[in-house]
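Intended use. Records such as the N-acetylneuraminate lyase entry shown here are meant for training and evaluating sequence-to-structure methods. They are not intended to support clinical decisions.
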Amino acid sequence: MNENLNKYKGVIPAFYACYDENDGVSEERTKNLAVYLYEKGVKGLYVGGSSGECIYQSIEERKRTLKYVAEKMKGKLTLIAHVGAPSTKDSVALAKYASELGYDALSAIPPIYYKLPESSIYTYWTKIIDSTELPFIIYNIPQTTGYNLSINLFERLLENKKVIGVKNSSMPALDIERFKTIGGNNVIVFNGPDEQYVSGRLIGADAGIGGTYAVMPELFLIAEEYVSTGRFADSRAVQREINNIIIALNSLNGSMYAVIKQILKIQGVNVGSVREPMSPVIEDDLAKIEEIRDNINQAILNFSS
Ligand SMILES: CC(=O)N[C@@H]([C@@H](O)[C@H](O)[C@H](O)CO)[C@@H](O)CC(=O)C(=O)O
């Protein structure tokens, strides 16, 4: 595959599940969030992944989110569809649908829940890859799936020319270095841990996909600018601020995504709450959430000047 990888290089928010007041997928809110992020200047969107609460949604709901984002952003942003689902059958159905909608690339977690041998994981990913003509990005997130992509399987998957990269959310920056060293220029490596955006980029990641980008895209865009122009001390300073904010986002009663969605709501982008069993925000935390929002805005101001 002679894919131009430049369209993947940049800040790519992991897109959130956007619900209405009855916990249903909302077309209007999905499209509003897509437009909001487009106007912030991000490079693309990673739709239907962990931040998209994919595991809590039906295949029909996931298809609707993929459709709404494509209707608004096809041709404007690089669109990556996360199609990993518990069964191969459902993952392939999502992959085919994303291809029909005109997505740029597919991505998928490995199989979840049962501890399957690598041969089954290889077959699972390969069946998704073979189901369309789209390029494929492996998603390595061992914290949630229980499987850490081995070098052996990575190399085997790279033999398929449709495999153009890996989104690596494991914590060791060393994994990013290894995947980049092995993959070289024909492969794109995405930094997954937002707390290590700068280190991930410096050790070899070409770009980033992350779950907290959408609540502070400006800060990740600034970090990216500093890294790519060699302003390393400045990039560390932005990373420190980002990390303070991520720690605060995780310090309250609601899940991190619920807190993020509350901040977006205050900013005028209402995407509803999270789906249970994730916990929504509680009344007592609302003032603290305002404070986090203020800190984000202050950090943006500090680094924009
Ligand atoms: C383990 C985990 O959830 N990792 C997140 C991070 O973006 C994470 O939310 C962030 O680093 C804050 O801890 C992403 O890698 C997930 C992601 O991009 C996705 O939504 O698919």
